[in-house]
């Protein structure tokens, strides 16, 4: 007994001193960090949504009013109804993604790859113009259809893409790092979209403005000059859509071939069996998630109210230094809007999965409602700004602007967004998932697998 016990004690000592470090080493090998290549490929996949969305946010209103020459009321309906339709389809697409089975190339990536050709085609069609002889109602239907169809394609891209954050593999820290890469690439893509489109169409808009000045001075041949300038501007918008569409296609290909979905203990990439009503009731009933949605809605509405006002300021007030200052302020707000709420969402989903282990595979539905509120706030903001300009007396093609238009822009840019951002910050500060709860969730997830 004593020799055997002594041998068992030695074995126990060796296990403590030698085997345990080996087990720890094996654990590190089983959960390696995300490679840089996968993070970059994942981040590149976010370019299409932000690039096209920013180009639309900056230029669609100007395109409809001054280039396509749509009535201001119809333009506001096109933008608002298109964004509202897009927002309504988000939960539906999210539920369909959750119900879709896992295939050879994954569960989420096939949605991104299959929606890409239709998204590129509809984006190019949206920036094309119809004949001037086309009836007003047909113009309205054409732009409403192309805009709504493109937004639907982007929903099929962005809802699976945003949900892909939960399936990249690695640890919680790796996921946060991938989210930071994504946020950085999305900020770059916002500059890319507005920069490319602005460089292509900006000079033609300047020529149209000069034509207005010449027309006011009643110089000869100004009508022909304005017509030629308008046609050149229309061709420039089509060319810009082709360039951005090519970048859209390339980014999707990099994401498709550079990222593989990795299931986890709380994210098995399975198929949801519950009906939509039950899933919706469980998601909305999660208090940390609903609180985060409210804060995200106020922050989105505040920021997106500033975008159309900035565009109009460039047309009304030719003050470069003031515009640079406003862009810097908007950039700071954009950083807070993108990084803070999106970094809090994965922790909220983990909290739900830990509290409801029998209700898995709902990640796409969580992200779809997040995208829903973002897009609804965008449509509401653009609709409010466009209708405000309409009631303030803005008319397409006017070379001068009355003081009421300038006053409306000033109101839209300062008091309203500041108040909304203040409310959003308060909601974020009161969110129940703090750093202590986050560490507790990390320990529970490590214990599971």
TrEMBL record:
Keywords: Membrane, Transmembrane, Transmembrane helix. It is found in: Membrane. This is Sodium-dependent lysophosphatidylcholine symporter 1. Belongs to the major facilitator superfamily. It is a multi-pass membrane protein. GO terms for cellular component: plasma membrane. The keyword Transmembrane helix applies.
């Amino acid at each position: 007994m004593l020799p055997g016990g002594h041998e068992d004690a030695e074995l126990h000592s060796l296990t403590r001193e030698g085997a345990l470090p080996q087990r720890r080493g094996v654990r590190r090998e089983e959960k390696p960090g995300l490679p840089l290549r996968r993070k970059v490929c994942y981040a590149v996949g976010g370019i299409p949504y932000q690039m096209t969305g920013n180009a639309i946010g900056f230029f669609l209103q100007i395109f409809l009013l001054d280039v396509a020459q749509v009535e201001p009321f119809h333009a506001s309906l096109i933008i608002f109804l298109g964004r509202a339709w897009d927002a309504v389809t988000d939960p539906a697409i999210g539920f369909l993604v959750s119900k879709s089975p896992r295939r050879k190339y994954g569960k989420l990536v096939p949605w991104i790859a299959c929606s890409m050709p239709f998204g590129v085609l509809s984006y190019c069609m949206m920036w094309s113009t119809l004949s001037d002889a086309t009836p007003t109602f047909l113009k309205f239907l054409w732009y409403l259809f192309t805009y709504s169809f493109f937004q639907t394609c982007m929903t099929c891209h962005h809802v699976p893409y945003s949900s892909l954050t939960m399936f990249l593999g690695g640890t919680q820290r790796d996921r946060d790092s991938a989210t930071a890469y994504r946020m950085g690439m999305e900020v770059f893509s916002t500059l890319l979209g507005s920069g490319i489109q602005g460089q292509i169409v900006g000079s033609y808009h300047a020529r149209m403005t000069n034509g207005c000045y010449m027309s006011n001075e009643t110089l000869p041949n100004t009508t022909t000059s304005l017509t030629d300038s308008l046609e050149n501007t229309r061709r420039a918008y089509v060319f810009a859509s082709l360039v951005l569409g090519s970048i859209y296609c390339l980014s999707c290909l990099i994401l498709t071939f550079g990222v593989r979905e990795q299931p986890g203990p709380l994210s098995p990439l399975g198929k949801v069996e519950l009906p939509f009503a039950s899933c919706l009731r469980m998601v909305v009933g999660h208090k940390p998630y609903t609180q985060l949605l409210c804060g995200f809605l106020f922050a989105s509405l505040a920021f997106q109210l500033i975008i159309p006002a900035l565009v109009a300021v460039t047309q009304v007030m030719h003050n470069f230094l003031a515009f640079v200052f406003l862009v810097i302020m908007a950039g700071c707000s954009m950083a807070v809007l993108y990084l803070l709420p999106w970094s809090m969402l994965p922790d909220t989903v983990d909290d739900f999965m830990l509290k409801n282990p029998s209700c898995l595979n709902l990640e796409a539905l969580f992200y779809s409602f997040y995208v829903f509120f973002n897009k609804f706030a965008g449509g509401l903001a653009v609709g409010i700004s466009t209708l405000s300009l309409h009631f303030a007396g803005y008319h397409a093609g006017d070379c001068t602007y009355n003081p009421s238009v300038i006053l409306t822009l000033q109101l839209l840019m300062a008091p309203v967004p500041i108040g909304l951002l203040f409310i959003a910050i308060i909601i974020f500060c009161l969110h129940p998932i703090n750093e202590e709860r986050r560490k507790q969730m990390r320990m529970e997830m490590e214990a599971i697998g």
